[in-house]
Amino acid sequence: MSGWGWQLPLPLRRLLVYLIGLVALLAAWELTSFLIRLTAPGYLANVFPSLAAILSSMWESRAQLGLDFLASLNRVVISLALAMAIATPLGLIIGHERTASKILSPIIYITYPIPKIVFLPFLFILLGIGNASKITLITLVVFFQILLSTRDAAQNVPKDYIVSVLSTGASKLGVYRHVIIPASLPAVLTSARISIGIAIAALYLAETFFTRTDGLGAFIERALELHYFPDVYAGIVAMGFLGFLLYLLLDLLERVLCRWKYL
């Protein structure tokens, strides 16, 4: 395909695609809002405010919205880092070591289907209503997603690669360093990206369950109680930007750790 847009460097092309998608989304929202405000009763029309009303609300609430954004960002980043730090080495070991797989896999199969949100009241009792309980819940939710993806990636490493490295006299640690980890790392980071949406869903529940002290979930819930929908959507937009920012950070991390994919 020819054309000036497709001759741009890859990062600019990706940015252009993001911008086109964003403009299309905003146009669809504005059209829907206009049609509803034109034809629907007053209250229903208020549920779908215009873009101008949402942007105005974001500007007016920028101080509180910024504080709540940073609180939520802090919780999700710490949770993702903890989940990856614990689940990645454990998944590599379970995927590569048969004994570890036989011992731990039944435990994983039993605990994975349990919805982790059921532990939230107990976490509040044990850890209080502050960051500790919220971070623990998000970490639990994300942990199993990364663990299973890492285990599967380690299991699928071709045996020929391992045999080749062992034939050079490499130790078991060398096999992990030169074969298992590099081969599994892209799957780990892909799983972390997929987990962002799950993490933000858990974040919202943690910030609105029992306590609404701070965070984007609390910001949205307070606006819902007041039936002030421009603020509701301001919080939703901020939460979407939070996920987008985390996605970009993980994408950058992959480019640093998995440079061979982009050669």
SSE blueprint and pairings:
Blueprint: H1 10-39, H2 42-47, H3 51-60, H4 62-96, H5 98-111, H6 120-127, H7 131-155, H8 159-167, H9 172-208, H10 216-225, H11 229-257
Helix pairs in contact: 3-11, 4-5, 4-7, 4-9, 4-10, 4-11, 6-7, 7-9, 8-9, 9-10, 9-11, 10-11
Question: Could you please describe the fold and organization of this structure?
Answer:
- The chain has 263 residues and is an all-alpha fold.
- It has two domains: 1-48, no CATH class; 57-262, MetI-like (MetI-like fold, Orthogonal Bundle).
- The chain is built from eleven helices and no strands.
- The protein has helices spanning 10-39, 42-47, 51-60, 62-96, 98-111, 120-127, 131-155, 159-167, 172-208, 216-225, 229-257.
- The longest helix has 37 residues, at 172-208.
- The protein is globular.
- The two termini are 23 Å apart.
- Mean pLDDT is 86; it is low at 1-5.
What's the short version?
This protein is an all-alpha fold and 263 residues long. The protein is 81% helix and 0% strand.
Order of helices and strands: HHHHHHHHHHH
Q: Distance N terminus to C terminus?
A: 23 Å
Average pLDDT across residues?
Answer: 86
Name the CATH class of the largest domain: Mainly Alpha
Keyphrases for this structure?
263 residues; mainly alpha; MetI-like fold; 2 domains; 11 helices; 81% helix; disordered N terminus
